[in-house]
Design brief:
Helix 11 (about 285-290) crosses helix 12 (about 320-330). This protein has helices at about 15-25, 45-50, 65-70, 90, 130, 145-150, 155-160, 185-190, 195-200, 210-215, 285-290, 320-330, 365-375, 380-390, 485-500, 515-530, 530-535, and strands spanning about 1-5, 35, 80, 100, 105, 110-115, 120-125, 170-175, 220-225, 230-235, 250-255, 265-270, 280. The protein is about 25% helix and about 10% strand. It has one domain (about 1-390). By secondary structure, it is α/β, with parallel strands linked by helices.
């Protein structure tokens, strides 16, 4: 089975699908499935634009609304995760996943599905330690804080995914797993993106939560985006016993969707030739959702997930074979995900712009049906209940401490004691939303090429390959550090990280008032979100 994998789409669906059609015309290659690793930007109307955490100059309608309205239909089944530049109000309607348009499926905050026997999982958003232990409390209309925190990864999603025991074929995250750069051509990466050097050397670039999932799930493939650079790595996992077969993960990060950029990759994946062509639920994942339903938290209270540390009566929420069997019986062994897409908001009309359209908190019928079928908590319904119980600010107030489920504790220290996630003031994991200078205008992604002048695309589409040759793993870069060494390196650097905000870094040339760091932040963000020629001049 041929699977196309795309990096940050930024709403340029027309361009992405035209690329696939061009690939078919020129090379007779037709993917069976398209995966997108975040920043999909499923923007339906002007209200959705206001819920997207980007500076105003980046708020462009792009082309998703054409697929939402039915004007166009995705030519290939598309499965995506959320990133950090999304119409958060739209994706929030589908916390457990669902169709955002015909033939376009969102995996939810975290999710696992199957297609032709291939198991595909993913987690949406990016990691921020100060929001990691909170519940999903945000709802539109967002304020300056919640418009950002809405897309931050939560520990409950990581906990759910860590309950999985069965093998994973493909997994997607928006930000990179921390330390993955040590398993690829690190020299080439730093040559292309020299401003990553400090974070790479201190082992603080990327998500520690994603790294944790990588070591637990050990998928055959792991795809990411976010940093707008193509990078490949090969990670050999340690075995837990002599009987366990060795496992390895092929990691690939994709560039963003722009002409002349290598933003799309085709891979060959083994599949079940007897399986149907419909997207399917994963029975083990459904069983895990049912088992962890009591852990759902829609407050700002911080708490850790259950652990075997003497503080919890239960810590293992993995699905038993009996529980998985019950799910199959509930579905009459028909795991096909229903094509129950429903319009839940007015669609953008270019002839009748509504610039003052306000976002509203919506309960999506897909989520209502899903929760009713499997006996799950409708997170958005719970949020609305919390608002009605006394929140007059449009945000959900914290519940009383005694209402918190006994399996969790707000008093326990976080497993990530400091925000050394690679999202510090000098790390480019997230664009500066209050920045006004010099970034690339993302509207260039949605320019429709004319039939007479088709877009130029990277020559990488001339063949089918798993790993790009330009990012092949070199012997002197890969596998030269064990996980233990990397952890020690990170711990040894924490002191430097904490003091970095108190003194200018040597590589930042600032003025006497210490403003050099701010200028450097802007340049780093420009380098990530700018076009290729701007990257070279930065």
């Amino acid at each position: 089975m041929k699977v196309a994998v795309a990096g940050c789409c930024h709403g340029a669906l027309d361009k992405m699908y035209e690329t696939l059609e061009l690939l078919q015309r020129r090379h007779n290659v037709r993917p069976d499935l398209l995966l997108c690793c975040g920043d999909f930007q499923a923007v339906r109307n002007e209200a959705d634009l206001r819920c997207m955490a980007v500076p105003a100059k980046y708020r462009h309608m792009q082309t998703f609304y054409r697929y939402y309205s039915g004007e166009k239909k995705a030519p290939v089944l598309t499965v995506f995760i959320g990133g950090n530049h999304e119409a958060s109000n739209h994706l929030q309607e589908l916390p457990y996943g669902g169709w955002v348009a015909p033939n376009i499926y969102y995996l939810g905050y975290a999710g696992v599905v199957r297609f032709r026997g291939v198991r595909i999982g993913g987690i949406s958003g990016i990691f921020k330690s100060h929001d990691y232990r909170k519940g999903h409390f945000e709802c539109p209309p967002y304020n300056q804080q919640t418009i950002r925190s809405a897309y931050h990864v939560r520990n409950i999603e990581v906990f759910k995914l860590k309950q999985l025991k069965r093998p994973m074929d493909i997994f997607m995250s928006h930000d990179w797993p921390r330390s993955i750069y040590h398993y690829g051509n690190k020299k080439q990466l730093l040559k292309m993106k020299s401003f990553f050097r400090q974070e790479v050397e201190s082992n603080t670039l990327g998500s520690p939560a994603a790294s944790e999932l990588l070591q637990h799930l050990k998928p055959t493939y792991w795809f990411s985006a976010h940093l707008h650079v193509k990078f490949a790595a090969f990670m050999q996992h340690e075995t837990n016993s002599k009987e366990e077969l060795p496992k390895a993960t092929k990691f690939l990060a994709l560039d963003k969707c722009l002409p002349h950029r290598d933003f799309l990759q085709i891979i060959e994946v083994e599949h079940d030739p007897n399986a149907g062509d419909s997207l399917e639920y994963d029975a083990e994942w459904i069983a895990v959702l049912k088992a962890t339903n009591s852990l759902v938290n829609v407050t700002q209270s911080s708490w850790n997930m259950p652990e075997k540390n003497g503080l919890h009566d239960k810590w293992d929420y993995s699905a038993t074979e009996e529980a998985i069997k019950e799910v199959l019986e509930e579905l009459n062994h028909n795991l096909t995900i229903p094509c129950n897409f429903t319009l839940t908001a007015a669609c953008y009309d270019p002839s009748k712009p509504q610039k003052n359209m306000e976002p509203v908190h919506t309960i999506n019928p897909q989520t209502t049906e899903f929760c009713a079928q499997f006996g799950l908590t409708d997170i958005n319904n719970r949020i609305q209940q919390a608002k009605e119980e006394g929140s007059g600010r449009g945000e959900c107030e914290e519940e009383e401490e005694e209402e918190m489920d006994s399996t969790g504790s707000a008093e326990e220290p976080s497993e990530y004691s400091t925000d050394n996630s690679g999202l510090s003031s000098i790390n480019p994991d997230e664009i500066m939303l209050d920045e006004e200078g010099g970034d690339e205008d993302l509207s260039t992604c949605s320019v429709d090429p004319s039939p007479d002048h088709p877009p130029e695309f990277s020559t990488s589409f001339s063949d089918i390959r798993i790993m790009p040759d330009s990012m092949a793993v070199s012997s002197d870069d890969a596998m030269d550090s064990t996980n233990e060494d990397l952890e020690k390196s990170a711990m040894g650097k924490q002191g430097e990280e904490r003091s970095s905000t108190e003194r200018p870094l040597k590589r930042i040339s600032g003025d006497e008032n210490g403003n050099g760091g701010i200028k450097k932040i802007k340049r780093r963000n420009q380098a990530i979100y700018a076009a290729e020629d701007e990257d070279k001049t930065d």
